[in-house]
Every structure is written in structure tokens, then in C-alpha cells.
Amino acid sequence: MRVEPTIELVNFTKYYGKHRGIENLSISINPGIISGFLGPNAAGKTTTIRCLLGILRPTRGQIRIFGHEIANWSSQVALKEKIGYLPGEFDLYKHFTVKSILDYFASLRKSPSILRNSLIETFNLDESRNVGQLSKGNKQKVGLIQALMHDPDLLILDEPSVGLDPLMQQRLYQVLKGFRDRGKTIFFSSHNLAEVQRICDEVTIIREGFLVSHNHIDQLSQRVEQRVILTMEEPIDSLLTQNPLISHFEKLETGGNEYRYSIYLKSAQINFFELFHSLHHQSIQNVVIPEPSLEDYFLQYYKEA
């Protein structure tokens, strides 16, 4: 039986006059998924998020949330009751206390703030403090709590961990995984590739308004060039250049009489022993085979582009 996607974009396009924001973006995000949304500055991430929320309207194409068209203004209030949103630039009234701010957000929603107290405890936030006295990290906690406290079915978060110390980042990841495990959907934009790789189930990458990739996180490593780092007793530049197994290589900085190379293979199916055999008459001091990362995948796509 087909699962109804929480988010569905079909040929979603947004232009600002003659300037492209997003062009023909089509993706589906199912319930119970943490979905990362990546791209450099001006890629179209914020435009997409604003259209998902109904703040902007698409030039053409469709955006459906829980199966309903977000462009249908009559259904937006009911849909937004089910959404928690944290903008990338979260600003607050500086002369209010944290409690007053959270009370204000709670008053805007019909749904009760059932998670408020537990989230305040999780993020170790003092409700009595004046917002103007808060650090960037504590202001981010307020933003997260207002987005999460009504237990929404969909979270749309723009750079959610910015300003948080490592301990609070880990607590945030645990909270988001808890939402996911209860069947909620989390869609968040981030520049932190390690963060995305750690908690996401799938990743969408866009560039200059176009879709580059939409994959399950486990599939990414299969599409990254396989790499091996060799430390040699003598230089082998010319040998590597002529080797039919090697796509390209980089010479790494070393100290002393070592020669270290980062070698990219032409195929992920190449057996490393086959590579070592082709270098059998050379003195290999050390071998490192790094696990392919999201950063490798991301940079590979952008180099190709």
C-alpha cells in the first residue's frame, strides 16, 4: 500500500521576476524520516522552505503537505497546526522573558504545548531570564522549543544546531530521533555535513535552483569515488599517472622522507589487492582506506558540476 508522503513537490518552480529561485524540483518525503536539505548559499534552500510554509507561492508546480495543496489558503491554518518551524534567522523581542515568549507562541496555536516542560529541562533553559540577556545558543534553544513544544507531525528547521554547544547538539539529535521514531517527519537545512550524515535517513542536494541528488543516506557511499591513502618510501608520481586503475591522485604534505598520496580509483569495484599488486615493486609503508563520507559525495558532485 502506498504511503502518503508528508511532503511532496512536483515540478516546483519559483522565480523572482526573471531570476531563478528553484527550477522543476520534484521530491517526496515520507513519514518517519529525517531528511537533510543541502546546498551552498543561494542554492534555493530558503526559497523552498518559505514556499513549503506558504509564505511564498510557487511560480508553477505543486506543493502538497499531508496530501493537501499548500497553495490552498483555506487549508493553511489547519496544516500549520501540524507544523513546527524554526527559521534560519530567529529573532526575539528583547524586553520579554523566555516564559513570556513561549506563552505568546503557545497562544497562537490551538494545540496544547504538551512537550514544553520536558524540552525546557532537556535544553537546560531558564524561563525567567530576559531574552535580551541570552547568548546566541540560548536564543536558539528558545527557537527550538517553540517549534517542538506542540508535538507537530512535521518539523521544518533551518540550521537547527547553529549556536549550540556539542552537548546541546547531541541532545537535539536525540530529540529529533525521538520524533522520527514516533512517525514524525523532520525536514531540515544544514551546512554541517557531519551532522547530516549522523542523523539523517535521506539527503536532498540542490545547486543553483536545480536538484542534484535525492538519495537514502546509505546509498551515498556507493556513488563516491573510492579512495586509498598510501605512504611510500619513494615518490611514485609517474607510476600513478600511468596506472589504468587510477582516476586521479593528490600528493599530500608529509614530513621527513615519506611520500603520501591520496589515490582515487576509477571504479568502486576495484579490489585493493589489485591496486597493491600493480605497485608490488614499491615500498609501501602504510595504507589507509577512509570510509566514504557525505562531504566526499557533496564535493564530488560540485566538482563535476
Descriptive overview:
With 305 residues, the chain is α/β, with parallel strands linked by helices. The chain has 2 domains: 7-221, Rossmann fold (3-Layer(aba) Sandwich), CATH 3.40.50; 224-304, 2-Layer Sandwich (Alpha-Beta Plaits), CATH 3.30.70.120. The protein has helices at residues 45-52, 73-80, 98-107, 116-122, 136-148, 166-181, 193-199, 217-220, 237-242, 272-278, 294-304; strands spanning 7-16, 19-29, 34-38, 60-65, 68-69, 83-86, 154-158, 185-189, 202-207, 210-216, 227-232, 246-252, 259-265, 284-288. The strands form 3 sheets. The chain has a 6-stranded mixed beta sheet with strand order 6-7-8-3-9-10, sandwiched between helices. A 4-stranded antiparallel beta sheet has the order 2-1-4-5, covered by helices on one side. A 4-stranded antiparallel beta sheet has the order 12-13-11-14. The protein is elongated, with a radius of gyration of 24 Å. The model has no long low-confidence stretch (mean pLDDT 86).
Q: For the record, what is the CATH homologous superfamily label of the largest domain? A: P-loop containing nucleotide triphosphate hydrolases
Q: Biggest sheet, strands in spatial order?
A: 6-7-8-3-9-10
Strand content: 25-35%
* CATH class category of the largest domain: Alpha Beta
What is the domain total for the residues?
2
How many runs of DSSP E, i.e. beta strands? Answer: 14
From the alpha-carbon coordinates, what is the Rg to the nearest angstrom? 24 Å
Mean pLDDT over all positions: 86
| Coarse structural class | alpha/beta
Largest sheet: 6 strands, mixed
Instruction: Give the count of helical stretches.
Output: 11
Shape: elongated
Specify the oligomeric state: single chain
Segments where pLDDT lies below 50 for 5+ residues? none
Report helical residue fraction.
25-40%
